[in-house]
Fold this protein.
Amino acid sequence: MDPADPAWAGGLALSLARYQPMLPMAAPGKPNNQLTYNETTAFVDMLASTLGRTGLDWREIGDDVDMVTIAMNMPVRCSAPDNTARATTDRVGRHDDDMGADSTRWAWAGQVLGNESESAYMAMCSLFIQPERAWFYDTYPDEQPWSAYDATTAASRLSQSPHKKMEFIVDDPERPTRANWLGRASEALDAGVIVVNSKGLVRNFEILNEQAAVGDLPILTVPAFSYFVHSFAGQQPASRDTVAGRLLDRGVYAMVVSVDEPGLSGFLPTPRFTQELGRALPLGIASRYPTAQCWKIAVIGDPMLALGAWRSRIDGAPPALFEPTDLDSELRDALQARDLASAVELLAVMGRDEDAVRLARSASAEGSDANSPQMAMAAAMPLFRAGFTDDFLSAVRALPDAQRTIEQRDAVWLAGRRELMRGDSDWLGAMRENIRKTQYVADGKDLAAEYAKFNGRAAARELLIQLRDAAERPHQRRALDREAQSYGR
């Protein structure tokens, strides 16, 4: 843990709760970078030296130290001797610098990152939340080697857990399509475990042979951890325009992802992962082969996260480590002052979406504060998560364009696709107003296809020409021009 690194907050919480000694070390680089081989070696040597000064036995599995939590915003990728990428969390905890087949393990590792609040969120969710529902989505064909990662089998294995009982949502269609995925993602997802099999790159994922963008990932109603079988997904977790970055932005507090191209077998098959998870093995162990060379699968989050019973709440005042904020008192003050926007925001922070929606809709009915940007910002996502689609859109439209968040724009598109399938063409304008800059071309193509259905091919072509002329980058203009030509002249 680096005291100058904001991830110290999550590291401190996990250190106290997991009885892990805090070892001060400097963070070498940023999460989206890749450590050189020399930097990698220097870091693991420094860790060994620092551990040596603690007096703890740490060199073998089964001694004083078997789990390492890296609470630093350092690179999730490191380099092997041939400069190819490896997962930093798979290198830490091994003895041999060559990272080969004889690379012996002395511990399993995970990495907590983000700013103070984000890292603390990672830690506290891992410590105090137990999932009640799991979602499985399988994009692979029912043939070898893909069938070894079958979602139905994985759910069945987890259902046999003697330690944790939960509900399951299993999307394992015979022929998965993007439309099927979007049908699920069009509403907020209530699942604390997310297991997805896919293909693709750092900024997209494939559903069979169709490409989906990170904006197609579902909005969550509860914190979740994820096992995402997908190449490159974790390569740049500090960027929200990547698969891992968007998952973190959605509220995922721990994940198993690849930092490079691992090959399918680089991932532990999902049925085996869920079986190990169901045995209450910690995430850092359950997600890895027992014996394997250092590879490209990273554990982001608390490596000691495990399924089990809810922990008992201890009544009484919190420890006096700092001055805590009493949200109930703040909520009462906001209501007494008729600061309804702040009250809605506080209710959402407290996980009380239904109450937040009730208050926001009541304010709208009274005409008090309903259309202010402050109320719109506070109410928009609770309205979406609660399924009040029209009210959600009204809230987003009450916000100046520059104030709309990427999550709100994603939600407009996710809800809009469902409403278009129901024949509501009014959402075409809403989706056009909320095209995402980071997937400008993909959004343009998708929107043109919908325009063609409702308004004809000429309207679709005209839309693409307008988007082409407004594009900021040459490659976007070229791509949209080619798409426009596909609709005729």
Notes: Residues 37-52 form the longest helix (16 residues).
